[in-house]
Every structure is written in structure tokens, then in C-alpha cells.
Amino acid sequence: MRRLRLKADGRIVELRDGQEFPLAPALISAAPAEATPPVVRDLRQRARLTQLEFAARLGVPVETIRNWEQGKRMPRGPARALLAVIAAAPETVFAALART
Q1: Tens digits of per-residue pLDDT, 13-43?
Q2: Which of 2, 32, 36, 47 has its CA 20 to 30 A from that of 72?
Q3: Fold that domain 29-98 belongs to in CATH
């Protein structure tokens, strides 16, 4: 299992042998404008999940997923970070979320 840490500046790092290693820097440093609806939809479709299933796994209302995908709202803060980690390691994230 991978150990990940969300840094105060929004970066996500992997912890290995007491050291921090950047995780998917191109995804993490993305500006909010780059978290466009197709990105959220693409992540969900790559995971082969319906909007309802994706929302349940993330612990958010299905309306939130719909709003992100339709461009009515954009993921912010922790949601953006979680989506970036899902893009890098979806199986790890879904396995960790399933235990909560």
C-alpha cells in the first residue's frame, strides 16, 4: 500500500523510507481552470463507474458529480487533490476509501 501526504501548498507526495517523493507533479500543479468537466467525467469513465457509484465511493452527493461534469461547479481544495490522486492511483484510492 502506498502512503500519500497532502502538503499545505497542495502538492501530494508519496512517503517511502522516510522521504517524500512528488506524485504526478503535472496533475497536482494543475490550476482550477484545468480541472474541467471532461477531466472529472474521464476519471469516472476510466474507473468504469456511473455517476451514482462514483459519488458513493467519494462520499459526495451525486449532484456534486453532475455539477462538476456539466461545468456548473468546479472541484476545489480537498476534492481537487483527491481527484488528482485518483488520476494517479485509482485502485489505491478506492481501496482506501472502501475501508472508511
Answers
A1: 888 888 888 875 544 444 444 445 568 999 9
A2: 47
A3: 434 Repressor (Amino-terminal Domain) (1.10.260)
